[in-house]
Structure formats: structure tokens, C-alpha cells
Amino acid sequence: MRVVVAGGGTAGHIEPAMNLADELMRRDSNTVVTALGTSRGLEVTLVPERGYALELIPAVPFPRRLNKDFVTLPWRLYQAIKQTRHILESVNADVVVGFGGYVAIPAYLAARGRFPIVIHEANARAGLANRVGARFAQGVAESFPGSLPRATLTGIPLRKSIADFNRAQLRESARDYFGITGQDPVVLVFGGSQGATHLNTVLGEVLASEKSHGVTFLHAFGTKNAAVAEASSRYIPVPYISRMDLAYAASDFAICRSGALTVTELAAVGLPACFVPLPIGNGEQSLNAADVVSAGGSMLCLDSNFDADFVCDHVIPLVKNEQERERMGAITASLGKQDASALLADLVSTVVKRSS
Questions:
Q1: Which pTM does this prediction carry?
Q2: Residue ranges making up the domain that contains 317
Q3: Exposure of 43 by Cβ count < 10 A (0-12 exposed, 13-18 middle, 19+ buried)?
Q4: Where does the chain show beta strands of DSSP type E?
Q5: Measuring CA to CA, which of 76, 78, 124, 305 is 20 to 30 A from 59?
Q6: Do 19 and 7 share a structural domain?
Q7: Which tens digit of pLDDT belongs to each residue from 215-252?
Q8: 289-292: long-range contacts (C-beta < 8 A, 24 or more apart)?
Q9: Which positions ≥6 away from 26 have C-beta within 8 Å?
Q10: What's the pLDDT score for residue 66?
Q11: Domain count of the chain?
Q12: pLDDT class of 194 with cuts at 50, 70, 90
């Protein structure tokens, strides 16, 4: 089977695509996977690291206001579609699997009527690309119920290290990996693949408060940002975490954004969190966290309300309460879905068989 996956830009689009690719390769090592991306996204690093071929097409973001980009959009989109169609024909694709993002609309329009299309929507509220593509796709998958019509509920494909996560087995080696000493509870603070400036700023203020004593913070501050304090036994800063399975195993609680992949991974590993939804977009991050928050497995704080006082008065007391942490972790774990890669791979295989 020759599969083209389209989902560039952020790790939230790329990671599920790569995890599906891994599942397809586990099933049949003769599978050929080609990823579509743009030169401006993380895929230029993440896809080759996973061992897959990457073909670049022009990025065609949709302007939000009338300007020069809006006027030239039809021509730029036409060129991207033309280039994408050439790639699909050159690899003799059996199916195009799209995950949203800048590369998705050119991929869907290039494949329409020529190659079978499967769409995967990660968020609780679908983005423009997937709303368009879902109208003519042969298969549609979703991670949260009701995000797209005609969709099969699969969840988000996860790395095998997350899907097969075992905290007890990893705990000691994970703490050694990050240099965590002592027995204080560990809070993992991260803002997705790019970091989060507001979360970083608040953490710096929290560390200066005596109320934060007795808690260790493992902080992924982002490669374009800086650590917020000197490294110490209670503050462990790293620019980027490549082994998120170890970060989850070493931690007892998380403070983070609520991208779909983040919410799904935390549920899979049973790690409770304080979600701080990104205050832009179409509100999907609040919706992503809604189920686990309403069930009592995590808490949510709007970005505008997230400050050092909130963390010191609400998060830290919870983190220091081991019984409450474990109760929340059990609820979070009950909502986890570890078989999404297999379910999506089944859907892709079914669509290919029906179209052959």
C-alpha cells in the first residue's frame, strides 16, 4: 500500500500522521509512506527523524482579512494543488490521509476524484481544511464525538511508548533521566512543541513564592524561549522534551495547554493536569479538555485568569495532596484511548480495498 499523509505545521498535526505510518509499517513492512509538508513547519525535522520521505509543497494559509495575500490566494492555491497532484501521481498513491493544517486543503483538492481520501480530525471543533475535505472524503475519523459528519470515532493515534505506557516500570529511570532527586511531587510544565510564553512567565513568579516550596518543576520552556530561573533541585528546565513518555512517568501533575494531542496523551498515561487553553483559534482547546475536566480528572483555567496566585492557591495545594492526585489520575486514565492507531489504520485499509 502506498500512503500519502498530509498534516504539517505543528506537532499536533504531524505526530498523529507519523504514528499512523508506524502502525501501517508494523502491519506490512512493504508499505510506502510519503509525507506532505511545507518548509515552514516542524515536519522538516520531525518527519525525517521518524524515517519517512517528505515532499514539500508551498504553504497556502487562508488570509483572515482583505489584503494582497487574499487577492493572490486563488493562484497560490492552484499552484499548490498542481504540485501536490504531481507528487500523488509520481508515488502512485493508493490513499491520501489528511490531518489538517496548511498542506491539507491542497492535498484534498488535488486528490478529489482521483485518489481515495481519509480525514482525521484531532480537535473537538474541526478546522477549515478538514471541514472542507470531509464533504467528499471516502473515510472520516474523529477524536471527539460530533466534530465532523459521517465520522468514525477512533481517538488520536499515539506513539507506541505512550499507548503501552507503564508508569511503575518507567518511574525510576525517568526521574534519573531528568536528574530529579528527592521525593517531592513533580509538576510538568509545557506549552506544546513551541513552548508558551505566558505559562513560562507565570512559572517564574511561582518559583519566587514560598508557597511553591515542596514541589519540583520540570519545565519545557521552548527552543525559542529562555529558562525562567537557575536550574536547581526544585527547578529543572529543558528547552524541548523528546521523550514525553519519560516526562509523564517522572511527573505527578501537569500544567499545559489543551491541544488535542496533549489532552489525549495525558488521558492515556493517567496524568491529571491544569489545562490553560490557548486564547486564540476557534475555541477548540477548551472543548478538547471539556470531558476530562467535567469528569473531575483535571482542572481548567482560562489564560486570562492564569497567574501566580491561581497556581499557588489552587494548583499547588492539590499537587501536595497525594490522595487527591491519585483520585484525579484514575479518572483521567479511565478516559484514555490507546488503540486509535489500529482503528485509523483499519479505516484506511478499508477505504483502499473499497476503492481498488
A1: 0.91
A2: 165-334
A3: buried
A4: 2-6, 32-37, 53-56, 95-98, 117-121, 139-142, 152-153, 186-190, 216-220, 235-238, 253-256, 273-275, 299-300
A5: 124
A6: yes
A7: 999 999 998 899 999 999 999 999 989 899 999 999 99
A8: 289/258, 289/263, 290/124, 291/144, 291/335, 292/263, 292/266, 292/267, 292/331, 292/332, 292/335
A9: none
A10: 67
A11: 2
A12: low
The CATH number covering residue 240 comes to 3.40.50.2000
| Residue reference for cell 503501552 | 164
Closest CA to 53 of 11, 97, 19, 91: 91
Do 13 and 119 lie in a common domain?
A: yes
Contact between 158 and 142 under an 8 Å Cβ cutoff? The reply is: no
What CA–CA distance (Å, rounded) separates 292 from 272? 9
Pairing of strands 235-238, 253-256: unpaired
Residue 162 CB neighbours (<10 A): 21
Residues 11, 62, single domain; the answer is yes
- Does one domain contain both 54 and 123? yes
List of residues 6+ apart from 141 with CB closer than 8 A: 118, 119, 120, 121, 151, 152, 153, 154, 343, 344, 347
Separation between Cα atoms, residue 42 and residue 40, nearest integer Å: 7
Q: Cell triple for residue 229?
A: 530561573
Length, in residues, of the chain: 356
**Same-domain check for residues 23 and 128:** yes
The verdict on 152 and 113 lying in the same domain is: yes
